[in-house]
Amino acid sequence: MAHGASAAETTLPPLTPGPHRRRIGLISVIACFGGLLFGYDTGVSNGAERPMQIELGLSDIALGVVISSLVFAAAAGAFIGGRLSDSFGRRRTIILLATLFFTGTLLVVFSPGYAVLVLGRVMLGLAVGGASTVVPVYLAEIAPFEIRGSITGRNELAIVSGQLAAFTMNAIINAAFGHHDGVWRYMFAVCALPAIALFAGMLRMPESPRWLVEKGRYDEALAVLRTVRPKERALAELAEVEQIAREEKAGQDAAPKAVFSNTWLVRILLIGIGVSMTQQLTGINSIMYYGQRVLIQAGFTADAALFANISAGVFSVLGGVIALYNMDRLNRRTTFQIGLALTTTCHVLIGVFSSLIPEGSAIRPYVLLVLLVAFVFSMQTFLNIAVWVWLAEVFPLHMRGLGIGISVFFGWFTNGMLALFFPALVDGIGITGAFFMFAAIGVVALLFVRTQVPETRGVSLEQLEAGITTGRAYEFRANARA
After folding, report:
1. What is the DSSP letter of 453?
2. Within 13 Å, how many C-alpha atoms sit on residue 3's CB side?
3. Residue 253, SS3?
4. Taking the model in full, what pTM does it have?
5. For residue 353, how many other CB atoms are within 10 A of its CB?
6. Which portions of the chain are predicted below pLDDT 70?
7. Counting CB atoms within 10 angstroms of each CB, which of 50, 120, 266, 278 has the fewest?
8. Separation of alpha carbons 84 and 412, rounded Å
9. What average pLDDT is seen over the chain?
């Protein structure tokens, strides 16, 4: 029995080995091309931005607009994607996102100048934001609760793998074609391949059974469940999902009205926003977007910084693998608290050593690189995957797309503000000041998680929904010492 499973869940027939397990695995691989695209498109700028700025003659402000336009568009894409997936289905929305990824890539690669480049980045941002909300929800809704964390967490592993692929391809392409004016276009062009794979693959994947039940399409939901569950388990889960759906329809109206008329739902929405913003306020994406610039300021040459970025990408993926292993073994709250403690410690150490070791010292760049890699490793091992899994799990079905969409909107907006102002921030207060600021935020975030965030591991989405709606899911303070 999964830790924390309710009495109702233990009556479900067990999840036995069989073809349904392989089917779940295939679905997760195809859907996670969305995460791979998310990672590549956010990571490719870390290496492409400098040659792009030189070729197009962009000012620092114009460059900041190009980089942050994707992120601000992702905030809108997160909200729109969640609403679209509630209305038209998770599968169809992911197919639409694949089309956006491909079209945005073409606009960027063939952009004649600044305006088309920004338009392409905005289109990619809409796709990235949509993928950041819809893919985790799709995976969470199709996976059984016993392995939901590891299945949903595969998307974040795909994201960091995409970022590593971007760092690696940037270094390879720069080494092979660095003398070409359009080298940054080659870096962006690679994104077209996984977009095609996502589009073709999702055409053959099923719709979320929970979304089908929400729309009253019970026979189709059962048909999907029978492909990803043992026969008796499929029937039992369908009955449970149907019961929750009937209770919702009998007691609640449209999602926005239902949310704001229930104080417990307002509370979980605010907590979701806080968790999403907390993830971004660690500063992780400042390193993913501007890592080369940070390493240059630390003391590396431009080419050495480009290759040093790969080490952060490698440890990011390694941390993702460890996180995936622990996802169904450690409680989400415990994982969050360990992650914030480690990342905050790394922030303090970066601030201390960047102030103690003088610029020009031979060891300065390597000490700061080790600490930056430790920060990225801690973030990916304990925070990134856990945050996306938690967001995909915690909202009730009738507001899941809305809830994760709004939460991730605020996360992406925070991300965008950091992307826009981080270069100026580092220029103004240096690495030392920037990371001491992140450390102070980390302390506040740790207190927030400890006092406000409910647990979601080992509980079916239906039982979790009942706890969130009635407030029982927040009764964790008495067990805080456990």
Report:
1. P
2. 10
3. coil
4. 0.77
5. 18
6. 1-10, 247-258, 476-482
7. 266
8. 18
9. 87
